[in-house]
Amino acid sequence: MKTTLSIIKADIGSIGGHIKPSQNLLEAVENFLRIEGKNLMNNFYVGHTGDDVALLLSHNEGVGAEKIHKLAWDTFIVGTEVAKKQGLYGAGQDLLKDSFSGNVKGMGPAVAEMEIEERPNEPFLFFAADKTDPGAYNLPLYLSFTDPMHNAGLILSPAMNKGFTFTIMDVSYTEGDRTIELNAPEDLYDIAALLRDNQRFVVESIHSRNNGEIAAVVSTTRLHNIAGKYTGKDDPVMLVRVQGAFPATGEVLSPFSIGHLVAGFMRGSHTGPLMPVKRNSSISFFDGPPVVSCLAFCVHNGTFTEPADAFDHPYWDHIREKVARKATDIREQGFSGAAMLPYSELEYGGIVEKMKKLDTQFRVKG
Ligand code: 13P
Ligand code: 13P
Ligand code: MG
Ligand code: MG
User: Fold this and answer.
1) What does the mean pLDDT of the chain come to?
2) Residue 195 lies in a domain
3) 133, 153: one domain
4) Does residue 125 share a domain with residue 113?
5) Residues of the chain with pLDDT > 90: what percent?
6) Do both 103 and 126 map to the same domain?
7) Known catalytic residue: 233?
8) CA of 321 to the centre of ligand 1 (A)
9) Which of 21, 144, 201, 284 is a plausible cystine mate for 25, CB 3.0–4.6 Å?
10) Which atom of ligand 1 is nearest to the CA of 250?
11) How does pLDDT run across 123-150, given as a tens digit for each residue?
């Protein structure tokens, strides 16, 4: 029997600005899922990263299943009602449509799903990030799946000797899903040429070339493409299978030690380093810094183990200090140049009005 793993996440309201959901909201979400999802799914886990609530579900309905998406949508509606009752900020922030229509993709929530034939042991990683966008995973995935500097298995393990296929999406194309497939290692420079542009090209999924199986899947939503204006960042989730024909857990975690600079700090408009944080972490400095959490699970016959918190280890305390320093460094530059995102990323906000007004005040001399 095949198992489907689905992460569906949304920001449906938060305490004190964009910091974290309330305990009442999380409890309402869990209770609803437990009762309403009883006959639909095998198992679930609910967590939050910053102000985003992520549902991890295991079921047998396949990818994009209406029943599962409707369950997640209804769950977020119930959570939003609690958010409204408590006066939480941004209640229902990511629910951009009035009623459910078959699939939550394109309605605001972020989705990462894969259908797998479970291996006898099936370890996988559940990533959730806040104050950033799906391109934040580009560099870590490139390094984990193609670079022996991070993935020793590319040298040591025959199970990975054929490399991986990257499916990359052009997220600026709004007519449909525009994707390209490229193979590592022979297309490495082409993969890098696309993945350098985190706002336009995003890894959608990765497959093993040794056994053809899916290794990783990323949510690729761009909220401003749906809403036509800035409504919040596209805080992305990701599933990565590990060990065997896939990288080891430590090889997937390794690039997160860089704390690379990503989009999404304060009002989704600034550049900041991505900080690996513990489970259920909140947000603080300058509505950031951008954060990523990683929970490791095993699944067997659709049932999850308890999560192991991959960034809850003394090693990552040292990285968090480094990333905090990088965050301070770039913040010292305020709005100037590289510290703020380019105009194309801000154009859905109020700056358009400001620029229009200023444009009329320019004079050409001579
Ligand atoms: P074990 O020998 O503990 O299974 O470890 C193998 C491995 O993948 C280490 O990265
Ligand atoms: P979220 O997308 O996490 O809601 O953050 C919005 C924001 O603008 C924070 O400054
Ligand atoms: Mg928010
Ligand atoms: Mg968020």
Assistant:
1) 96
2) yes
3) yes
4) no
5) 90
6) no
7) yes
8) 28
9) 21
10) 10
11) 999 999 999 999 999 999 999 999 999 9
